[in-house]
Amino acid sequence: MHWIKQACWKLTLFPGFLCLLLPAAGMAQDTGNLYDTPFDINVGERYFQRQCSRCHGQDATGNDETGAPNLTGRLSNASTDVGIFKVIREGVPGSAMLPVSADTPDATVWQLVSFINSLRTNLSSVELVGSAEAGRALFNGPGNCSDCHMVNGSGGRQGPDLSTVGERRSPEELKTDITDPDLDVLPRWWTLRATKNDGTVLEGLRMSEDTFTLRLMDAEANLYSFAKNQIANYERLQVSTMPSYQQSLTETQLDDLVAYLFSLREEN
Amino acid sequence: MRRIAIVLVCFLPTIYSLNSLAQEDAPLTSAPITPAFTPVSWERLVNAADEPENWLHYSGTLTSQRYSRLEQVNRDNVSELELKWAYQIPQLDRAETVPLVVDGIMFITEAPSNLVAVDAATGRQYWRYDHELPEDLRICCGRNNRGVAILGETLYMSTLDAHLVAIDARTGNKLWDVEVAPYQSGYSKTAAPLIVKDKVVTGIAGGEFGIRGFIDAYDAQTGERAWRTYTIAGPDDPNVASWSGDSWKTGGGASWITGSYDPEFNLIYWGTGNPGPDWNGDVRLGDNLYSDSALALNADTGEMEWYFQFTPHDVHDWDAIQVPVLGDIEYQGSMRKVIMWANRNAFYYTLDRETGEFLVGKPYATQTWAQGLDENGRPIRVPNTSPTYEGVVVSPTIGGATNWFSPAFNPDSGLFYVNSFDSEQMFFKRDEDYQEGERFTGGGGQSVSPVDNYHSAIRAIDPASGDIQWEFPVQPRTTAGVTTTAGNLVLSGSVDGYFYALDAFTGEELWHISLGAMVHSAPMTFAVNGEQFVTVAAGNVVFTFGLRD
């Protein structure tokens, strides 16, 4: 950690104890991020756009071209401010994530940390009108959501596991997911319809597809793997298998459901 | 003792038949010792096609056709290929390397800037060279090294801190090390150099850092620079008028993939990269010569004899960083000496390589930015396709319809093969001041939709017409190079980790194997003791295949 040595070396020009009193300059351990005002987040964002967006995407959601991860959700290499600081300062060894240049001031890195933190929803700032309890009852009861969706091990397999959906989707997004599921269907949830050489048709969720093979899961959760040259043809249906609940749920029920789903996250 | 004596007698004829051991008492061995190679003369390099058992250049030959005359592995038996050995690169970065093979020794470059020599038949190491690098490299897009060049008994390699090093091919000792440009100012190097006569010709990277690009030639013996040709016009060139104000000083025009050479015309052909800043053209009004161009340089002086600019005043980052493929084709009734170029901007071009004359130009992938090309090959732009502050969706993406990865040309089929990508992206513009050593791009891009919605394919293009004869769909977005052979094969890989062979004439799939990680480089082929092998890097592993014994 050469920057600590650098900072402390300069500070030892003063009496030694000042090294302990002077905040932030070289000590990342205890004082936390002091650069967390809206101004700092703004500066961090501009730095990010210039230096980081090429790999991590303009909106920080990652980039399949460069392999850089999505930074708007749970981070895989850090879970604290100090951890994020370290990744930016030192890079991730053995990967394409390089450190920022050695002469980038610590303050700049802290501002970047603040920006990255701002990408995740600040839970304390969210106030939802619905009741998570009522939402849960609806989910497992008359809503029949658990027919297709699992939460913490209970439920069906025909839709995404929602055990930590509150970490990935904002309340607004959750509402649209329920009322307009066809809006943005991820490729994992497309349907594949394969016609075998004998004419029978097999249809199911597109678990994976690549240059030469495809894999699907049918309505009974059976898994199939095909070589593309072993089937007569196949087609992709890029619509959701989830119906819209726009008409069948009241506004209150929707709010309750959103409150419940938004509460689903990994226990700390 | 008697048993050993009998064994000795049996081995004596073998031992004495190996030249290198005739002079001394050789230790007993159970396998023939690989003889040290014959130095690679310039003559061998010019005639590399005549010794297809070796792969003497990054692109196979000086024409960069990536066409091998080996036909032991062919259309009829390619499905019998089996894995012979794998070499695992210690770094996990995806490999972009194409190894060289010289007389049974394979030279593999590794991320970040290392080099290893292995026995080509077994993949076992002779030596390795690890280049020490500073921590704060200025690179835009990953720690890559695409390969080395060889002349005599010396290998030449680019390093990420913008050095050119000369390494002894027998031992891995460093012979010399020159700084091509200061890395702190945003320069780096990733491409295999090109040997031209007694010089090492090499480019530079840094188009996202406001560099002024160039192509250099170094004396192969001493490392002294023989000439430097700037790819961005300067005050001594009237074409500096294609840059408003002083924007030429940070004009970009990097030269980060290996070029080609024609001994008949004594011309070096090289592509140039995007103008800087990439996505904000407001600060650099004009055509921005010679960014996004094909350059033809006199090999002795570096002087530019002609240029052809594919994308004037580029605001989408569509570097003309493609390997120039030289071939002789029949065009409108007569034989022409041409360059075949599938450009990142989604247009395919055939140019006369003596004069740069524009012969053919046609889209080979989806694009929404140009209505077409005029009679000189200049694009006729569609309005409102330049990046805005709010973002505008344009096709192709920043990464382009194709990119740096190698295309190939097969003279038997007469077809030019390239991995193509049909897609779109949202392009943004941003105001940015230049700061030396920092990124200077003036904007960026964002995906509009998951990549599964788009389409990649190997396309076989007729160079005389620009028409696509066939395509083979592969998982999007595939970024693999292509190699082709006299065995009627087209060899390539895919982003989802397949290595496969197609019929060079029809595009029919003949064989594939799942190697498990992205193929992000081109395959190559060679032979040892009369046995043909095919090699490709997938993920961070170099795999070599051969026919069943």
What is the number of beta strands of chain A? 7
- Give the beta-strand count of chain B: 38
The number of helical runs of chain A is 10
Overall 3D shape of chain B: globular
Largest interface, counted by CB within 8 Å of the partner chain's CB: A-B, 33 and 45 residues
In terms of quaternary structure, the protein is heterodimer
Q: What is the strand arrangement across the widest sheet of chain B?
A: 1-32-33-34-35
Beta-strand content of chain B: 35-45%
Radius of gyration of chain B: 23 Å
Mean pLDDT across every amino acid position of chain A:
86
Work out the strand percent of chain A: 5-15%
Task: Give the helix level of chain A as a range of percent.
Answer: 25-40%
Straight-line distance between termini of chain A: 29 Å
Radius of gyration of chain A: 24 Å
N-to-C span of chain B: 35 Å
| Uncertain stretches of 5 or more adjacent residues of chain B | 1-34
Q: Total number of helical segments of chain B?
A: 2
What does this structure look like?
The complex is a heterodimer of chains A (268) and B (549). Chain A is of the alpha+beta class and 268 residues long. Helices cover 33% and strands 13% of the residues of chain A. Chain A is built from 10 helices and 7 strands. In chain A, strands 6-5-4-3-7 form a 5-stranded antiparallel sheet, with no helix packed on it. Chain A has a two-stranded antiparallel ribbon with strand order 1-2. Helix content of chain B is 4%, strand content 37%. Chain B contains 2 helices and 38 strands. In chain B, strands 1-32-33-34-35 form a 5-stranded mixed sheet, with no helix packed on it. In chain B, a hairpin with a 2-residue loop joins strand 36 (524-528) and strand 37 (531-538). Chain B is globular. The two termini of chain B are 35 Å apart. The relative contact order of chain B is 0.13.
Note the topology.
The complex is a heterodimer of chains A (268) and B (549).
Chain A: H1 2-11, H2 18-21, H3 38-51, H4 53-56, H5 81-90, H6 106-118, H7 132-140, E1 150-151, E2 154-155, H8 165-168, H9 171-179, E3 191-196, E4 201-209, E5 213-217, E6 223-227, E7 231-237, H10 251-262
Antiparallel strand pairs in A: 1-2, 3-4, 3-7, 4-5, 5-6
Chain B: H1 2-17, H2 42-46, E1 67-68, E2 81-88, E3 100-102, E4 105-110, E5 114-119, E6 125-130, E7 149-151, E8 154-158, E9 163-168, E10 174-179, E11 194-196, E12 199-202, E13 214-219, E14 225-230, E15 260-262, E16 267-271, E17 293-298, E18 304-309, E19 325-331, E20 334-342, E21 347-352, E22 358-363, E23 370-373, E24 379-381, E25 392-394, E26 408-410, E27 415-422, E28 425-429, E29 443-446, E30 455-461, E31 468-474, E32 483-485, E33 489-493, E34 498-503, E35 509-514, E36 524-528, E37 531-538, E38 541-547
Parallel strand pairs in B: 1-32
Antiparallel strand pairs in B: 2-38, 3-4, 4-5, 5-6, 7-8, 8-9, 9-10, 11-12, 12-13, 13-14, 15-16, 16-17, 17-18, 19-20, 20-21, 21-22, 23-24, 25-28, 26-27, 27-30, 28-29, 30-31, 32-33, 33-34, 34-35, 36-37, 37-38
